């Protein structure tokens, strides 16, 4: 690969002392060093893979004025370099750097670096593969790549990607050509092992992608008839469903795009989430309570019926929605949990293993797990990707492995650094030791002492003199000299010298050598927050203190907002005028040519010119007569309320009165736009229930006094009779002289007693309900609730008791207007 007669010895001499050049497994040439004008800027670049102290690196040099300079270096993962190539993906002559870091016998992690004006940008990471293929696309100048991810036996999950600008996307346009080759592979496998259901499954999947639907149905039928535990019958039926949809036998909304973005719709049943494509068209119908971004493996975490699951790009569940929480995929594995325990899933949906108490996320092929010790103490150990215990549970603190090292603390023992086999590399005598960051660890000499930094041998590098300390990033760390509410944040180098003096209310590392430096908005009350200036990693203050927030830099730009607008800034702090500027406060992100605007607790999508492609609807039609309209009230940066307006009531005066009452209950009140509030308030609403002539509106709020341990939530339900233009009270549901207060109080007391000793309710504090007790109606049930601290601790939220109407039908006024409004 050495080109242009460059001297290999000279280039090697630019490596760190002790480094040796390594040859990636895919390279057959005599030299692994690539020299050429990779970014087409007229200057040569050299890419050198090397090994130093059993760790693997990639260095990129650039030649200016006959001199070579290092412009990029990255430390890889694992035990070697599996793949290295320089690929012109888009046919423009610019060759991106493709590297695969070997993590084990089967798995490698793919990184792709693309050239930008400021250098290299990593656009792919944490995408695991077992086999990687880069290939030319017929009748174009482009190249695509395919990843094969090992499942079981010699079966692989296969996906094809193309690169566009700063992202990669499934290239479904070449599925037929590529997957015909995959079909031939699996046809051979099913001949070799006709009783292996997993080969029939992947044959069917490949046949669908190759457009061979009839053949796919036969493969699916064969796989189902084998009646094997894996893949499950449900997995085969999902394949069958894909065939039927491809044949037009099912009605689906839109089509499945390679670029999908979460989008919300307000409905009678509440906020529902689906996905749009890059033109703003809804392509996966809004059927979920929440939806997260699709990851590089083509999967997304969603929630449905109060449980979380994982879907693919066809909106089919790969992991069924039956879990309380699911973590994002890391190293090809997602961790899910429910009341029965913790589970590790592959991205094919295969349940690999489970543990009762806890499984952490994977890093470098290992995850923490927990056994319960004496006095219910959590004791940590480590498992591999098959669930095999590789380091026994014996730690009360266990951090993730990074570069084959992990910081742990033995039960009733010292902090240690251990290797992947659990062997002690270094033991520490200190009462607290943090994780490793760039060779340094945060520590305390005394349990009630201050923080400093030690090296991996335990030697004190920076004396403990800080009230708080953060890990080092790119040679600098944020510290706080103060131990009380008056912050003194500064930025130090690895010698403990101040790059930025410790005089600020907050400092944040933004990446790409940029820093946000914050002064207190109110010097007498620092918890009110900060107003920021932009600085660089050398300590130079670049702008005035004009931002209330600056997000991390990515590709030389960052999202920021002032008192009224959110926008993109460059590294000089200048607003980037060719990108959107949006009214409100929040975050803007560039996503494959779109701008995602998370502004004022609402997500919308714009093109780069600022044209809105998608935003959540503000009106919900209840029926042909009535609708609910969302109104936004945002008089101040710290005060934001979304509240409902009821439309369609015949009596205009009553409609106005109802809406004024709703606005008042939603805390719509006069707020000084220029005043810095002592608190932050956010209010929102949803449609809790609608039937016939009754709509129940939920008004929720959260008031957070700055500096408080937590805020105080509010919850109010408004029962609106649409026909008579009236807001109903609890009393109106019952007959006169029915003693409903006593009856409901007794029922609730019995429910509390039935909960037993595990209940969060303070039975001694329960004195029954009030005449105007907070309540809401749902289908066939009366719900009575209490505010935090009334009868239970704050953590219990709003204790709610559900009373079926059948249990109290003898006291309900079934002839009253309230009851008849929804019956």
TrEMBL record:
Domain DUF3298: 732-805
Coiled coil (UniProt feature): none
Keyword Transport: no
Record carries keyword Methyltransferase: no
Classification via InterPro entries: DUF3298, Integrin_alpha_N, PdaC/RsiV-like_sf, TPR-like_helical_dom_sf, TPR_rpt, WG_beta_rep
Sorted UniProt keywords: TPR repeat
Start and stop residues of the TPR repeats: 197-230
PANTHER family: DUF3298 DOMAIN-CONTAINING PROTEIN, GLR2918 PROTEIN
Name of the molecule in the record: KWG repeat protein
Native source organism of the sequence: Clostridium pasteurianum BC1
Lineage: Bacteria, Bacillati, Bacillota, Clostridia, Eubacteriales
């Amino acid at each position: 690969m050495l080109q242009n007669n460059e001297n290999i010895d000279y280039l090697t001499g630019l490596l760190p002392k002790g480094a040796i050049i390594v040859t990636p497994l895919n390279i057959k040439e005599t030299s692994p060093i690539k020299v050429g004008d990779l970014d087409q800027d007229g200057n040569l670049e050299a890419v050198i893979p090397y090994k130093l102290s059993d760790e693997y690196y990639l260095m990129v040099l650039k030649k200016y004025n006959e001199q070579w300079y290092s412009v990029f270096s990255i430390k890889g993962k694992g035990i070697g370099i599996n793949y290295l190539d320089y690929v012109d993906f888009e046919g423009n002559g610019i060759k991106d750097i493709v590297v695969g870091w070997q993590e084990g016998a089967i798995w490698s992690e793919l990184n792709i670096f693309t050239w930008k004006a400021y250098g290299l940008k990593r656009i792919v990471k944490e995408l695991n593969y077992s086999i990687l293929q880069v290939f030319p696309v017929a009748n174009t100048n482009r190249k695509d790549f395919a990843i094969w991810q090992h499942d079981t036996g010699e079966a692989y999950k296969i996906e094809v990607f193309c690169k566009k600008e700063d992202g990669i996307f499934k290239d479904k346009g070449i599925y037929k050509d590529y997957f015909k080759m995959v079909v031939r592979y699996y046809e051979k496998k099913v001949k070799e092992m006709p009783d292996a259901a997993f080969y029939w499954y992947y044959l069917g999947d490949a046949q669908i992608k190759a457009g061979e639907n009839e053949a796919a149905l036969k493969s699916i039928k064969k796989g189902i008839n084998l009646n094997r535990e894996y893949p499950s019958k449900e997995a085969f039926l999902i394949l069958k469903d894909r065939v039927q949809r491809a044949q037009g036998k099912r009605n689906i909304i839109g089509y499945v795009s390679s670029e999908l973005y979460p989008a919300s719709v307000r409905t009678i049943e509440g906020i529902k989430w689906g996905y749009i494509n890059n033109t703003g068209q809804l392509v996966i119908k809004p059927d979920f309570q929440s939806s997260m971004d699709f990851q590089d493996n083509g999967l997304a975490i969603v929630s449905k019926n109060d449980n979380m699951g994982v879907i693919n790009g066809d909106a089919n569940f790969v992991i069924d929605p039956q879990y309380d929480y699911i973590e994002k995929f890391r190293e090809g594995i997602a961790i899910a949990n429910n009341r029965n325990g913790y589970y590790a899933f592959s991205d094919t949906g295969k349940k690999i293993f489970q543990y009762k108490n806890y499984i952490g996320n994977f890093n470098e092929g290992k995850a923490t797990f927990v056994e319960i010790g004496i006095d219910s103490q959590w004791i940590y150990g480590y498992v591999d990707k098959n669930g095999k215990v590789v380091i026994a549970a014996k730690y009360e603190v266990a951090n993730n492995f990074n570069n084959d090292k992990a910081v742990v603390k033995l039960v009733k023992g010292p902090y240690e650094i251990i290797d992947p086999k659990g062997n002690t590399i270094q033991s520490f005598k200190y009462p607290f030791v943090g994780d490793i960051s760039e060779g340094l660890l945060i520590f305390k000499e005394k349990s009630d002492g201050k923080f400093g930094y030690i090296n991996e041998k335990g030697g004190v590098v920076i004396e403990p003199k800080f009230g708080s300390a953060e890990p080092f990033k790119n040679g600098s760390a944020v510290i706080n000299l103060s131990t009380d509410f008056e912050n003194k944040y500064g930025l130090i180098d690895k010698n403990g010298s101040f790059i930025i003096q410790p005089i600020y209310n907050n400092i944040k590392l933004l990446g790409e050598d940029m820093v946000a430096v914050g002064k207190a908005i109110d010097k007498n009350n620092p918890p009110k927050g900060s107003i920021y200036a932009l600085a660089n990693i050398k300590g130079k203050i670049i702008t005035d203190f004009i931002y209330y927030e600056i997000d991390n830099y990515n590709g030389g730009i960052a999202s920021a907002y002032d008192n009224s607008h959110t926008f993109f800034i460059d590294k000089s702090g200048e607003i980037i005028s060719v990108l959107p500027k949006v009214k409100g406060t929040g975050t803007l992100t560039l996503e494959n040519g779109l701008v995602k605007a998370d502004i004022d607790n609402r997500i919308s999508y714009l093109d780069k010119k600022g044209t809105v492609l998608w935003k959540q609807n503000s009106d919900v039609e209840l029926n042909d007569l009535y609708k609910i309209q969302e109104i936004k009230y945002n008089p101040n940066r710290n005060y934001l309320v979304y509240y409902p307006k009821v439309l369609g009531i015949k009596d205009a005066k009553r409609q106005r009165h109802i809406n004024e009452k709703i606005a008042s209950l939603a805390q719509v009140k006069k707020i000084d736009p220029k005043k810095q509030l002592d608190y932050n308030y956010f209010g929102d609403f949803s449609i809790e229930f609608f039937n016939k002539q009754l709509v129940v509106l939920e008004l929720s709020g959260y008031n957070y006094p700055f500096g408080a341990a937590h805020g105080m939530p509010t919850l109010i339900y408004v029962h609106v009779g649409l026909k008579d233009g009236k807001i109903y009270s609890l009393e109106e549901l019952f007959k006169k002289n029915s003693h409903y207060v006593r009856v409901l109080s007794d029922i609730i007391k019995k429910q509390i007693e039935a909960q037993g000793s595990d209940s969060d309710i303070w039975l001694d504090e329960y004195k029954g309900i009030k005449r105007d007790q907070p309540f809401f109606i749902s289908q066939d049930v009366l719900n009575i609730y209490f505010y935090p601290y009334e009868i239970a601790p704050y953590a219990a939220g709003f204790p709610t008791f559900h009373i079926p109407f059948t249990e109290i039908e003898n006291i309900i006024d079934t002839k009253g207007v309230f009851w008849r409004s929804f019956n």
